[in-house]
Design brief:
The chain has 3 helices and no strands. The chain has one domain. The N and C termini lie far apart (46 Å). 0% of the residues are buried. With 90 residues, the protein is mostly helical.
């Protein structure tokens, strides 16, 4: 294992841990908002809005960590080089 591979692996582990902490904080904060809603009025369910807004950010965070963090392969690099060599379509 090279130093670069080790550095990349550590970066991926840290990104995954960061996502799981983000998810835990999301759950706790939104649970607190639901409790506040319940004990304050119990009427219109306003906690849905922060949960949805933050949830969208959480989804993109997860996509970045679990989909976008894959290492770049030599095959992908070669494919991109080959695309750059092709003449533009007429």
């Amino acid at each position: 294992m090279t130093d670069e591979q080790r550095r990349q692996a550590i970066g991926r582990i840290q990104a995954k841990r960061g996502f799981w902490w983000h998810l835990a904080v999301y759950i706790v904060v939104n649970a607190v908002l639901v409790v506040v809603w319940y004990y304050s009025s119990g009427g219109y369910f306003w906690p849905v809005w922060p949960a949805l807004g933050w949830g969208i950010g959480l989804v993109f965070h997860g996509l970045g960590v679990f989909v976008g963090m894959r290492p770049i392969t030599d095959e992908q690099i070669q494919r991109e080089i080959d695309r750059g060599r092709r003449p533009p379509p007429p």
